[in-house]
């Protein structure tokens, strides 16, 4: 996920431009670039392929250069827009004279903008990370300023009206689509409002931005831990317990468990003492309390802004530019799925609860008949180990990191007709304008590829892999667009895209390989899918390229690829025991594949709980209702009603015990009235997989048709149209329900 996590949609729609030149410091001596990962493609090698026709992105920004360059881009955009407003009037505004300069400036800017924000997630230098985070706010303010200019809106409106219903030989379907999206974006920015309404709208919007920044800072700055004794953490591997911070003073003898995924996820799955799991669960869902009023205010302000624009509530506004389009589509989708899955969820709970009863009796623990939130991961884990006989550690021995990634790239090469060529230090030096390999990546562990067409007939773009964790680095898995692809001003040649996969696999030590769990294998294939989506983009305009699709579609291509990691064919191709090179034994492979749908009812119901909560709080019937809403209560109710799991409210705590909304970053970071999208895009991913790939997932002809028919389009046309063209009929949800066992 998080393919667009680093970039707000507003930014994509209203991007500023160009860069000021700043002297860069010389490279420190002693730089070594010798990544241990060495890729061998199955395709025809050719030394020319290490010298692509376009200089790769350069990573030589500094704290000082960012301070100058980021506002510089913004000033450049402002200058372009000023000039445009002075030289073109609504009477003579055309696509060419209006959008020509806007998009040219945007293309220049985007070559720099993503990278300026990227350091925040990957740099080892905390000052550079901070400066890069600062860039994000400079860029978003700049985008807001550019996107709320009356003079430019008047030109855009004139172009929109002129194109609407008329045929113009110089404007193609993609141009029209862009203008329509852009025009509606301006309307959503309040440009059609007048007088005091306009001021009120602007004030609400600007307050929402402040609230989001504050919420983010509180959340990412949260360093809270729960102090527990090693004995209380029994079940968690000793290595893990030893790696936790040691307490002093009143916490002497205890260790601090953080609420970050690498700590809290295994703790909830492995800690044996149910009361300790309960304390961990409650502590996790009642922290960063200063965010509770911030989200509440954001909900009220969003409602106010939406009503000023004439929408019935915020969800109606937020859904307008999504595939699902309106609340009347999303609500029945979520509620219907919940109703159809609820019984399955209760059966899963009953199965785990029977196990819990036995377990508690065997361990002389009290058993009150309830199955709680903090029981789910623990008993789920036991069921996978015992009933499905899948030893995940054993499985991971068949997925040594380097070999598995190599095999995945082979699959992508053959399926999508591509050729990955790893670049050496000498290649990077040769490609660097200053002859300096160091500035061609952001860290010496980063692996760089030149990506070519499978028959070497043309260049595709650059792909980077940053595989291992390090201090200050983004701690999950995500794909980042570094540079978008687009058609250059000459109308013939292209700027080739660049994409980075930021991962956190254990680093191989000495001659010992690192291993991937099956979960890792699925995740990496998913992220690689986002990378290929970006690399495949062939839109004219950067803002519509690759992963710049509607947000409730963007996950579909990667979700579809996850299916490959659950087939015998692919798993045989990928697996290779680190000692014997043997593929995963059939028995273990079948057992693994049979876990694909384990607890899927409950897992999906949990996603539905989040989605329903999100829709509930963004669809108040009146503004007064928005002001009166108790988010904590709605959060707890939604979790409980959707999953059927018990919580502290069943043990005498108040019903609004949780403040889970305080750490629900999605709802403050662009997924407001959008969380449903994760499930919604699965409808399309499953439809595409079943219809085109399921019978023959490695068919290169289908792969090529998919690459050029779906990935290549990016967001340059309506996603429904893209799907219809690929499937040969309108998309439907049959396969989605079938995959869930709901025929
Ligand atoms: Zn994703």
Short structural description:
By secondary structure, this protein is an alpha+beta fold. The chain has helices at residues 9-13, 63-87, 95-122, 126-146, 150-163, 173-188, 195-220, 238-243, 261-270, 274-284, 291-308, 314-319, 327-362, 373-386, 392-396, 401-415, 425-431, 518-536, 556-562, 568-574, 586-594, 600-617, 623-628, 631-643, 677-693, 700-711, 719-727, 734-739; strands at 225-228, 245-246, 255-258, 418-422, 447-453, 459-466, 478-483, 486-487, 494-495, 498-502. The strands form 3 sheets. The chain has a 5-stranded mixed beta sheet. The protein has a 3-stranded antiparallel beta sheet with strand order 1-3-2. A two-stranded antiparallel sheet has the order 8-9.
What's the arrangement of secondary structure elements?
Blueprint (H helix, E strand, L loop, with lengths): L8 H5 L49 H25 L7 H28 L3 H21 L3 H14 L9 H16 L6 H26 L4 E4 L9 H6 L1 E2 L8 E4 L2 H10 L3 H11 L6 H18 L5 H6 L7 H36 L10 H14 L5 H5 L4 H15 L2 E5 L2 H7 L15 E7 L5 E8 L11 E6 L2 E2 L6 E2 L2 E5 L15 H19 L19 H7 L5 H7 L11 H9 L5 H18 L5 H6 L2 H13 L33 H17 L6 H12 L7 H9 L6 H6 L4
Parallel strand pairs: 6-10
Antiparallel strand pairs: 1-3, 2-3, 4-5, 5-6, 7-10, 8-9
Helix pairs in contact: 2-3, 2-4, 3-4, 5-6, 7-11, 9-14, 13-14, 13-22, 18-19, 19-25, 22-24, 26-27
The chain binds zinc ion (ZN).
Overview of the structural elements:
- It is a single chain.
- This protein is α+β, with helices and mostly antiparallel strands.
- The protein has a domain at 9-219: Glutathione S-transferase Yfyf (Class Pi), Chain A, domain 2, CATH 1.20.1050.40.
- Helices cover 52% and strands 6% of the residues.
- The strands form three sheets. A five-stranded mixed β-sheet has the order 4-5-6-10-7.
- The protein is globular and about 85 Å long.
- The model is unreliable at 1-29 (pLDDT under 50).
- The site of zinc ion (ZN) has 6 residues, from α18.
- One of its GO terms (cellular component) is mitochondrial intermembrane space.
- It comes from Periconia macrospinosa.
- InterPro entries: MetalloPept_cat_dom_sf (IPR024079), Neurolysin/TOP_dom2 (IPR024077), Neurolysin/TOP_N (IPR024080), Pept_M3A_M3B (IPR045090), Pept_M3A_M3B_dom (IPR001567).
């Amino acid at each position: 996920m998080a393919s667009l996590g680093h970039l707000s949609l507003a930014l994509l729609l209203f991007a500023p431009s160009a860069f000021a030149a700043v002297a860069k410091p010389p490279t420190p001596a002693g730089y070594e670039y010798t990544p241990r990962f060495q890729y061998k493609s199955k395709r025809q090698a050719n030394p020319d392929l290490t010298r692509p026709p376009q200089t790769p992105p350069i990573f030589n920004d500094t704290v000082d250069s960012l301070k100058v360059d980021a506002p510089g881009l913004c000033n450049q955009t402002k200058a372009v827009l000023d000039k445009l407003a002075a030289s073109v009037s609504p009477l003579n505004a055309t696509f060419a004279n209006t959008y020509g300069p806007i998009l040219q400036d945007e293309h220049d800017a985007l070559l720099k903008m993503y990278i300026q924000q990227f350091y925040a997630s990957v740099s080892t230098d905390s000052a550079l990370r901070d400066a890069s985070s600062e860039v994000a706010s400079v860029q978003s303010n700049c985008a807001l300023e550019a996107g709320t200019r009356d003079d430019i809106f008047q030109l855009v409106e004139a172009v929109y009206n002129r194109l609407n219903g008329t045929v113009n030989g110089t404007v193609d379907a993609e141009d029209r689509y862009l203008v329509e999206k852009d025009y509606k974006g301006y309307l959503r920015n309040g440009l059609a409002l007048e007088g005091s309404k306009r001021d009120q709208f602007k004030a609400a919007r600007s307050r929402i931005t402040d609230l989001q920044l504050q919420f983010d800072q509180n959340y990412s700055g949260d360093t809270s831990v729960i102090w527990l004794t090693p004995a209380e953490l029994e079940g968690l591997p000793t290595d893990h317990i030893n790696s936790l911070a040691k307490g002093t003073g009143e916490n002497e003898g205890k260790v601090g468990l953080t609420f970050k995924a690498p700590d809290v996820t295994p703790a909830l799955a492995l800690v044996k003492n149910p009361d300790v799991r309960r304390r961990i669960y409650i502590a996790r869902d009642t922290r960063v309390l200063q965010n509770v009023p911030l989200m509440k205010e954001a909900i009220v302000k969003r409602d106010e802004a939406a009503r000023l624009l004439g929408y019935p509530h915020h969800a109606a506004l937020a859904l307008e530019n999504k595939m699902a389009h309106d609340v009347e589509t999303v609500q029945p989708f979520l509620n219907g799925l919940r109703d159809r899955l609820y019984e399955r969820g209760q059966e899963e709970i009953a199965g785990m609860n029977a196990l819990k009863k036995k377990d508690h009796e065997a361990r002389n623990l009290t058993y009150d008949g309830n199955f709680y939130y903090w029981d789910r991961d623990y008993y789920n884990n036991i069921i996978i180990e015992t009933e499905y006989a899948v030893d995940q550690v054993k499985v991971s021995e068949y997925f040594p990191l380097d070999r598995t990634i190599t095999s995945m790239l082979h699959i992508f090469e053959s399926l999508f007709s591509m050729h990955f060529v790893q670049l050496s230090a000498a290649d990077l030096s040769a490609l660097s304008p200053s002859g300096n390999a160091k500035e061609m990546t952001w860290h010496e562990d980063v692996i760089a590829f030149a990506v070519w067409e499978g028959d070497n007939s043309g260049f595709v773009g650059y792909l980077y892999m940053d595989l291992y964790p390090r201090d200050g680095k983004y701690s999950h898995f995500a794909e980042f667009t570094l540079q978008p692809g687009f058609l250059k001003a000459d109308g013939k040649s292209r700027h080739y895209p660049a994409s980075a996969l930021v991962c956190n696999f254990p680093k191989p030590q000495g001659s010992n390989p690192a291993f991937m769990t099956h979960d890792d294998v699925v995740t990496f294939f998913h992220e690689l899918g986002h990378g290929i989506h970006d690399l495949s983009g062939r839109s004219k305009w950067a803002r519509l390229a690759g992963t710049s699709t509607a947000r409730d579609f963007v996950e579909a291509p990667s979700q579809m690829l996850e299916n490959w990691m659950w087939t015998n064919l692919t798993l045989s191709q990928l697996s290779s025991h680190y000692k014997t090179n043997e593929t995963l034994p059939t028995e273990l492979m079948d057992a693994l594949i049979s876990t694909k749908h384990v607890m899927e009812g409950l897992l999906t119901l949990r996603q539905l709980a989040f989605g329903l909560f999100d829709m509930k709080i963004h669809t108040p019937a009146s503004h007064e209702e928005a002001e009166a809403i108790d988010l904590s209560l709605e959060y707890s109710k939604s979790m409980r009603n959707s999953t059927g799991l018990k919580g502290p409210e069943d043990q005498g705590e108040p019903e609004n015990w949780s403040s889970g909304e305080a750490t629900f970053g999605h709802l403050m970071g662009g997924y407001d009235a959008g969380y449903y999208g994760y499930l919604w895009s699965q409808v399309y991913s499953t439809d595409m997989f079943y219809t085109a790939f399921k019978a023959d997932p490695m068919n290169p002809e289908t792969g090529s048709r998919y690459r050029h028919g779906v990935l290549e389009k990016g967001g340059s046309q309506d996603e429904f149209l893209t799907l219809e063209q690929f499937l040969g009929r309108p998309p439907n949800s049959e396969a989605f329900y079938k995959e869930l066992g709901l025929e």
